[in-house]
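Hello,

Our lab assistant flagged a job as stuck in the queue for most of the afternoon. It eventually completed. Since we weren't sure the result was trustworthy after the delay, we are filing this so someone can double-check. Below is the sequence as submitted and the structure that was eventually returned. Let us know if re-running is recommended.
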Amino acid sequence: MGPADRDWRSLVPQEVNRVPEDDIGRKRAVRSRLPLVLSILFFVALGVVIYLSVDESVPVAAGRSFRYKTDGFLPAAFVQKVISAGVEGPAKNVRAIKADLEADNQVLAADVRRRADGTLEIVLRERVAVAKIASAPPTGPMVVRLVSPDGQTFAGTGYSEQTIRSLPEIQDFRSTGSGDQLAIEGIEVVGPFLLAARTSYERFYLQWASVSLRDCFGAQEDAPGSNLNVKVRIAAQPTDRPPLVGIIFSTANWRKELALLPRIKIEEYLRMPNATAQAYVLKLSIQNRTISPPVPEPRLVPAPLR
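-- returned structure --
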């Protein structure tokens, strides 16, 4: 192959993008990068606008809608009432809305944000109800409130009557205060106890009608004779054997006793020929102290039918 077959590009320098080093060349280089710089500035400005639009200090415009989600029972009407309450009404900022939502004992935490289009996004985490409690105010009818494991009581907005009816009732309690400020003596024991039963032993928990704190000594849970007396629903049991009317747990060892409960053949024992009493109570609080350390020694004890 001779010179005629060579590509002309190999004979001509191809540094077509090389910028001259004089003033004109530098100006041309700046102008060529201007669109890129403007694009970067545009997106930075857009990001600032979006950030400011979701800032929690931005007031909520009247008439704007909201998106609402909860892991419990509070209805959207409850949220709407909180948003619209007060002198400012819907114009108050979302920090104030968050504080107002969390002021209700039923709300454990509230996440309130505002989208770029002005729509509120509200996500609630509600306290879990593990029991109910009935108290008589100085005037008026009996008031039923729900109880969370941490001892907070709340009205139970959104709960159905069936759900409230199925909760065990805390009875024979000593308390101070009223309403949202109600403090129950011994709740630091019975609250975690009922939560553990509801979470890990629901089959038994659903059969419990009430828990008596008559023999619960509160913070002195290791005191001898400090017990949690559970009353079992009779209506949910077979009628062809004596019913189990109660279970007694010690406040000191209720975790071990609760774990022992599924292993006890209660149904088999209640159908034995010598089970001739009207009803029985299962005492899990009895300890066999001939062994060191003592071990639980559950017993079925005859009891009067209540």
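-- support follow-up --
The delay was a queue issue, not a problem with the job. The result is valid. DSSP finds eight helices and 16 strands in the chain. Residues 23-54 form the longest helix (32 residues).
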